Amino acid sequence: MRVVVLSDTHAPRRWKSCPPRVAELLVGADVILHAGDVCVPSVLAELAAYAPVHVVKGNNDGPDLDAPETLELDLGGLRVGMIHDSGPARGRTARMRRRFPEADLVVFGHSHIPLDESGDGLRIFNPGSPTDRRRQPHGTVGVLRVEGGALVEAEIVPVT
C-alpha cells in the first residue's frame, strides 16, 4: 500500500491548486492522509480525485471542514493515529503513545517541520508542508509504504 501524507496546505493563501510535484506523487497512491490545516474543503475534493482521503481538523480549519480532531485507522494492518498538533517536541513520543495506545504510527502536522522519529514503542511522522516551508529548506510531503501490516518505508520528499 502506497500512502501519501500531507499537512498544512493552507489553501487558498498557499495552495492555489495542487502543485505539479505533489500531483506527481499522488498518482498511484492507495490512500492520502492530511494532518490538518487544509483551510478550504475544495482541497480535499482535489485530493480525492487521486485516492481516498482521511483528514483531521487543524487549528486553521473552520466549521466548513467536516473532520474530527483525531482519527484512528487501519491501513493494511498498520494501526495509524492522526492528530494535527502533537504538542511540544519534548516528551512527544510518550505523549502520543498515551493518546494513541494501540497505534504503530502517529501522523501529525502543525509545525511545518518534517520529522520521522521513533520512541516509546511508537513511530511518529510529520510530512512538513508542501506549500509553506517556513524555516525549512523545501516544501515537503511524506510517502509511506505499508506491507503485511508493517511500515516498511517512510520518506520525506522535497516538492519545492
TrEMBL record:
It comes from the Bacteria. InterPro entries: Calcineurin-like_PHP_lpxH (IPR024654), Phosphodiesterase_MJ0936/Vps29 (IPR000979). Keywords: Metal-binding. The lineage of its organism: Bacteria, Bacillati, Actinomycetota, Actinomycetes, Streptosporangiales. PANTHER family: VACUOLAR SORTING PROTEIN VPS29 (PTHR11124). This is Phosphoesterase. Pfam families: Metallophos_2. Its EC number is 3.1.4.-. Belongs to the metallophosphoesterase superfamily. YfcE family. It comes from Nonomuraea harbinensis. Residues 1-147 form the Calcineurin-like phosphoesterase domain. The keyword Lipid biosynthesis does not apply. The keyword Nucleus does not apply. Its cofactor is a divalent metal cation.
